Every structure is written in structure tokens, then in C-alpha cells.
Amino acid sequence: MRTHLVLGLAATLVTTGVLADVVAPGDVVFVEGAVEAPLTGVRGDPKAGRAVFANRKQGNCLACHVNGDLAELGFHGEVGPALDGVARRWSQAELRGIVTNSKMMFEGTIMPAFYIDSGYGRPLESFAGKSILTAQQVEDVVAYLLTLKEE
Amino acid sequence: MISGRFLIVLAIAAAGAATAQDDNVLVVEGAQLVTETRAPAHIEHVGTIYSGWRFRSGETQVLQTDDFENPAMIFVDQAMDLWDKVDGEAGKACASCHENVAQFAGLRTRLPRVKNGELVTMENLINACRTGRMKAVPWKWSEGKMTAMTALIGLQSRGMPINVAIDGPAASFWEKGREIYYTPVGQLQMACANCHEDNYGLMIRADHLSQGQSNGFPTYRLKNAKLNSIHGRFRGCMKNIRAIPYKEGSDEFKALELYLASRGQGLSVETPSVRN
What we know:
heterodimer, B: 276 residues, alpha+beta, globular, disordered N terminus
């Protein structure tokens, strides 16, 4: 606990102002799987979100989802539903909940929780204690998902 | 041989897009192998089991139908040389104690199995001979000589049904393997079952998910152009979900190997198989 605090403090000092507005993974409030409040004070950027969505080391969402908006990248996965028109099916708060921790919305789903930093077993050392995406990347992906209006 | 290959090419033309397993028939050197059968009673969520061969592309499939085409056979040839090669302080080769390798027909179908309270795999048996009888250094779990020798001995059982014991002294190992199979791990929080039981037949990005059967191991992968041990594959799958893999040869991976083999009871041994 102590080390945790000290480390947290050091990080805040370095990036003062930015981190202050970030909701930590453990502090995210879910209501029926949805997350109303933004995870950061910086509005999500759909263009950045599109890149995070496609990046294999970040969202890697294409591993499981077909997305017509990224047709230029081949090999979309089929494990989850196609995300075309997803903005018509879910609200911003619901999408934020799904990307933050899909297991709060879909019990037992294979979809990874992208913004948790504990609760998983045997993480590879370089990922231990970390979330897959940063708070800002979650906001960016949510902003991007909100642009997917066409079925 | 030729007829076997033709059969496949024709069937592929009819099959169409890659959803679920295909209907192709695996004929290797004129003999038909079982790539599909009723799931054993102990599997709850799957009615039919399929070899991983059924999920591969036609170009990959065909490589396994003819031993001249199968790139794994180079390593089997190397293992035949190792079979006769004297190694270690006792001045012996495998051939000094075993008349011929064909006498091991059937062995691959029953491994891993319990011996004196321990779960032993093909690698364990080979290294027991090396250290005990030959007084030679043991081979590493996935080194080239080991995977070559497990391929040569496994090949003697090709076409025979997987038939591991899971009761009696094997029961506790089997339970442990099952627990590992269903426990989510890694930053991605996934279990083997998430991909290979719940989602087989679907594409995960560019990969066509199979049931993760072990009947083809060691497997020649086009990706790395060598033979791959089953524990090596477990490592790869665990690292992909950002989990610390267990060690090759560990109790955990041996238990998982037994459990996985039991999920493939009745499928033909395909050793050495070809995958991408």
C-alpha cells in the first residue's frame, strides 16, 4: 500500500495536471454495466480511437469484431458481433462501460476488460498491474465507436 | 497417394468460405484417418470433436497427405539416424536396447500415463532411457533432437485412436489439467476453453480457431519451419493472452497434456502433422 502511494505520487508530480483528472481503474463507477462519467478530462478523439481500435498491441478489437469502417485492413475476427452501426445500439455511457470492463455488461464474456489493473491471474511481468488501454485510449475508442452509425 | 490428394482438392473447391470445420477427408499414404468423432462423455459442452487438420486451409492440409510432401519427415529421418547413434558413457544407442522403432506402435496413443505415481510423457520416457540406460545427457524438452525423436516414435502410432487412461491413478492429474483448461489467466483473462471450446470454427483475426486438439503433435508449423512440442504450443497460447506460461515439462503442462489428450479420445494420431 505504502509503495503504491509513493509511486502514485511520483507519477502525479511528473505529469501534474493531466493525471489529476484521470479516474483510476479501481474507482470507475458502473451502473448496470454502463459508465456515465468520462475517465479523463480530455474529450475523446475519434481519430486516435480508430488507430487504437486497429492496433494489435492496443485494442486489437479487429481480432474479434468485423468493422466495415476498417475494411482496408483484412482479416476481421468473428468471435464478437460486427460493430457496424454500434452507435445506434448503445449509448455513450454503455459503450464506455463495455470497453472499460465488458464483464460488467456481459457476464462471463471472452471480451477482455480493457481498463482494469488487477484481478487477473499470472499476468506476464511486463503487463502486471497495468491495464490494456489507458484511460485516454478508452475515451478515444468510445468516441470512435460513436461514429459507427451505419449498419 | 495421388488419389488421396485429388480427393482433398475436389472437396475444397466445394467447401467455400472458412466457417466451422470443413468436410475434407484426411487420407495419408492411402489410409483414412479419423478427424471427427463423438466427443467422449466427460466433455460437457461439445458434441463432436475434430482434429485441427479440419480447420486448416487446403494448401496446408494437402502437405500432410503425402509423406514426400510433409516437411516434418526430414526431422523423422534425422531421428532415425539418432536412433542408431551411440551416445553417452554407457556406449549405447536406442537401437542397442530396442530391436526396432516399430515396436512402439500404440505407445503414442496412451501417453501421458502414470508410472510409479508420476505422470510421464513421451519426452520423459526418452530422457529416462538417455540418462538411465545410455548415461547420456537428457535432451531439452523442445530441442530439435527431442521433437524429432517424439515424431519418429509417434509416427509408429499414426492412424491409431488416442486412448489415454483418465481414471485410477490418473484421475488426480486429469482433474488438475481440467482445472487449468478452464481457468482464465493473463491480462486478457482467458482460458483455453474460451477459444477452443466456446469459439472453435470462428476466425480470431487471421487465425481459424480449432478445438486445440493434441493428436497431431509434434507439429510442423509453416510459421517457424520446425517441429513444435505440445508444451511449446501451450506456452505460445498462454503468452498470447499475456499470461506467464508454465515451464515446459512442468507438472502443470503434463496434467494439461493429459486432459487435452482425453478431449481427443478416438481421434487418430496424426504425428507428425502440419499446421500453419
